Each structure stands twice: as structure tokens, then as C-alpha cells.
């Protein structure tokens, strides 16, 4: 089949590899002008490890793993440690592989078949599915026709909006926003991964290799903003943390002001009763984002891509049967991840001063 994949994140890249390996003619388009590689290290867990092995990528992924078991230190306004959270309380099993997003993206990108057509700075403009194929007009003005379109364009998927309707019908906001920004070299010096809280807010530093990231998280009801307007996102973050100049807050906010690759998003889930319509199918966050709090986005991207490719191979010429098999096998992973995404927020971003004090007292009493 001639297959268009929209979005070159983990899900889009993995799908392009798996479908390319089964002999399909794959075109991959990415709205950004380059691979989007920023963000904090992500986990590969559970059956996704086996998928990585079957893709022939497990050794390359393991070679690039980073140790993220460094303790989280909850600090006060002066930087004094109030309580500690061991790394094992935030990851599942010793088998989990943490890898920087940039490394996983590069491993996947390098594994693309040379026959894959990749276009950066390109996206779908319109699509029309007439039952026998999908006519696509790209934002560049180019037109083409495909047998199958795969939406791998993340939590705010355009493919999903064009095919299934507005995002608000499927997005469940969990009440938090998150931002990540790279700090200047040397900013990560010191012990642990420090976090300062005040009610409803978290600001901290997380380190891996020579990189230090500023992490910001706050509780808020739904905020309407343009996902493509980075300055608007910057303003939301700066407003949420305005009026605080204790500890290393000014330094982290300064990085937010300057970072051309600032990552900002609502902590949300996507819940769709079905991930396919006609000749369009969704993978990764576009289909079933469980939110960064679940820590399973990359694992779900790998299993979803693999199961979709397997299902298409098992049911040649029968998209309906293939999609049914893909959804039946992938949905339990997605639902389990979505079910586990909730409680972490209360631990790392307590809503009230009372909850904050209780958490610190509990951890301190546990000798942490
Ligand atoms: C920059 C960035 C940083 C992230 N950082 C973290 C993190 O620190 N921790 C965490 O848990 N999760 C993070 N995530 C989310 C995480 O990558 C995903 O949950 C997981 O890897 C599943 O990936 P995905 O490919 O489904 O979605 P994504 O990783 O979101 O990838 C979607 C891709 O589609 C592209 N795209 C979007 N719209 C269009 C369009 N209209 N046309 C073409 N392409 C489009 C995007 O630019 C992106 O490259 C981040 C995502 C991004 C994009």
C-alpha cells in the first residue's frame, strides 16, 4: 500500500519503520522543520522492550540508556532539603529503560528504510477519503493519493480533528500543565534532582548526562491557547510562576524566556471509542495519550506501531479486520496506562499547603 504517516514523533517513526519493513511504500511528514528531540528522558517498559528487540533496536536503545534513579529532593525556598523521594518510587521495575528523547528519536530515524520518503516542514492540509483511497492536499500545496493515512501527530492531532471532529470531544484535561526547558551548561551541578513546591506548583531541575532541564508543573483548569504559538505558551508559564524569586526560580524562568524549543502542554488524556475511520487510523498519543504522568507514551507508541503493522500483515486487503485486531490488542495497554496516570500529581504537586506539609512529613518520617 501507499501509506502516509503524519507526525515524526516516536509513534510516527516506529510506524514508518514497521510498515516499511513489511514492504509498504511509506511517506512520513513532520510539521516541524526537524526532528523534535527536546524533553526529558522517556521510559521504555514492559512489552515495548520486546517490541524494540523484534525491531532489532534493543541493543542500540540500551547503549543509550541513562540512569535516572538519582533521588528527587524536595527543597525549601533556601534550597535546604526537606524530604527525599527515591528514584525507585517513580519508576516501575529495574528492567525499564530510560533514554533521552533525542537518542530514541535518532535511533528510530536511523532505522528508517532508505525507501521511506520523509518531508520535514510539511503537514496535511486537507484529506478526503472516498472509500477507495484518501486524497491529501498538503500545506505545501502538493497533492497525492494514499491507500492508508496514519495519524501519528500527537495529543493535539490534526489528523484526528479532520477525521473524527474537534479535540474537545476526546480530550480529558487532568488539571495540570507542564513545561520543560533546557538550562545553560553547568546549571545542573549539585546533588539530586531538586524540586521546590508551593501549593499547586512545582519547579525543579532534572539532570541526565551533562544536560540539566528546568521542569515546571502547575495545576489549572483548562486554558485555551494556540498550540503553535510558542510566545503565548511562554506567557502562560511565566504568568503561572510570576511573583516568585526564591531559590533558583529566576534562573529557570529566564531559561523559559529564552528557549526556542520550550515544551509546554496540558496534562491530558485522549479517549476515543475507536481509533480508525475509513482509511484513516491513529497511533500513539493521537489515539490514546495517557499523559506524561503515566510515563508510558513511548512504550505505547512502540507497541501500537508494531501491532498495527502486524495486523495489516495478517489481513492483507482487509483494513477493517486489520484495524479491529490492532485495536483489540493495543487497547488494554492504553487503558492500563491511562488508569495509572492519576495519583502522581498529588505526590509531586500537592494542591494545598496542608497536603504539601503532610507529604514532606511522611517522606521525612520514612527516613527519606
Ligand atoms: C517536543 C516534545 C517533548 C516531549 N517531552 C516529553 C517529556 O518530557 N515527557 C513525556 O512524558 N512526554 C513528552 N512528550 C510526549 C511524548 O513524546 C509522547 O507521549 C510519546 O513519545 C508518544 O509519541 P507520539 O509520537 O505519539 O507523539 P509526539 O511525541 O507528540 O509526536 C508527535 C509528532 O507529530 C508532529 N506533528 C504535530 N502536528 C502535526 C501536523 N499537523 N503535521 C505533521 N506533524 C505534526 C509533532 O511535531 C511531533 O513531532 C514530548 C513530545 C514532544 C513533541
Automatic annotation (TrEMBL):
Domain FAD-binding residues, every copy? 3-161, 271-337
What terms describe the molecular function in GO for this protein?
Answer: FAD binding
**Source organism per UniProt:** Catenuloplanes atrovinosus
PANTHER family according to UniProt: MONOOXYGENASE, OXIDOREDUCTASE-RELATED
What Gene3D superfamilies would the database entry show?
Answer: D-Amino Acid Oxidase, subunit A, domain 2, FAD/NAD(P)-binding domain
Annotated protein name in UniProt? 2-polyprenyl-6-methoxyphenol hydroxylase-like FAD-dependent oxidoreductase
Parts forming coiled coils: none
Cited InterPro entries: FAD-bd (IPR002938), FAD/NAD-bd_sf (IPR036188), FAD_aromatic-hydroxylase (IPR051704)
